[in-house]
Structures are given as structure tokens and as C-alpha cells.
Amino acid sequence: MAHRWQIAISAGLLAAVWAGLADVFHLVTWIGFLGCSTFFAQTETGAKGMMMAMMTNLSGVFWGWLIIAGSGVLGSPMISYALTGIVTAFMCLQASNKNFAFIPGTFIGCCITFALNADLAAIIPPLIIGAVLGYSMSLLTGLLITLTDKTAESLKDDAVEEA
């Protein structure tokens, strides 16, 4: 990994900013980090990758909500188990649509929903911000790479001129 320092600086800086903002606005910090991780785990880059992370995570939130709400209405544990299996199958099938192709992102959103008992107001904002955070880390890393490469080239040119 040739640009480890640039990645470390951008990730560390923006993680600290996110942690501070999450604290100030009473957002669940770890959800934002899962949204950010989804951005880096899927194969798309840039704004398209950010959208893929958001769409798969948010679809998982929907599926998790559906399982929780449906299980509450159905009442029977056996029927709830069957609903979980059916919904899980749909979570995988939705990946046929290229915008929802990252199945782990869907499962991440679903698991977050289970963890917070479908509290959508606590889930959705940090999850969306997390995808933006990942994209921002990517952009800042690119900027730091460009700056350090230019600085290294400039120092190299100066050394050649002095010799």
C-alpha cells in the first residue's frame, strides 16, 4: 500500500470530525462508521460508490423494519422465522439490480435495524452521513496523494538542480 500515510491521515482526521459531530448532534457514531465501511467495501468508487453504499444500507434498513414489523403483527414465532427467511431471500434477489448489487451492504443495514429495534430516526441520518464520510475520506486521500507526490517531485527537481 504505497499511500498508507495519506490514507491514515485522511481517515484519522475525518473519523475524529465525525465522532465529534455525532456527539454534538446525538447521532449513533458506530452506525456512521458502518456506512463509511460499506463505501470502502463495495467495488464502486466516487459518487457512484457513495450512492451504492447508501442504497444498499438503506434497503437493508427497510428489510429489517419489514421483518420486525411483520413479526409483531404475525405474532407466531414460527411464522416470524419463515418471514425472516423470505425477506432474506429478497435481500439477496434485489442484487439483480445493479444499484443494489452489494449484498453485504444490505445485510449491514438490516443488522443495524435489528440492533436499534427499527428506530429509523436514530438509524437513517448517521447511515447516510457514513457513506458521505467514506466518500470524503476517499477525496481527501486523493488530495493528499496529489500534494505529497507534487512535493516529492519538486524536492527531487531541486536536488537535481543543486547537483
Mean pLDDT: 93
Strand content: under 5%
Query: Which stretches are poorly predicted, pLDDT < 50 over at least 5 residues?
Result: none
* Helix and strand sequence: HHHHHH
Termini Cα gap: 32 Å
The helicity comes to: over 70%
Q: Please state the structural category.
A: mainly alpha
> What would you call the shape?
elongated
Explain what the structure shows.
With 163 residues, this protein is mainly alpha-helical. The protein has helices at 4-24, 29-41, 46-74, 77-93, 103-115, 120-162. The protein is elongated and about 80 Å long. The relative contact order is 0.19. The model has no long low-confidence stretch (mean pLDDT 93).
Summarize the helices and strands and which ones pair or pack:
Layout lengths: L3 H21 L4 H13 L4 H29 L2 H17 L9 H13 L4 H43 L1
Helix pairs in contact: 1-6, 2-3, 2-5, 2-6, 3-4, 3-5, 3-6
Summarize the structure.
With 163 residues, the protein is mostly helical. It has helices spanning 4-24, 29-41, 46-74, 77-93, 103-115, 120-162.
Features:
mainly alpha, elongated
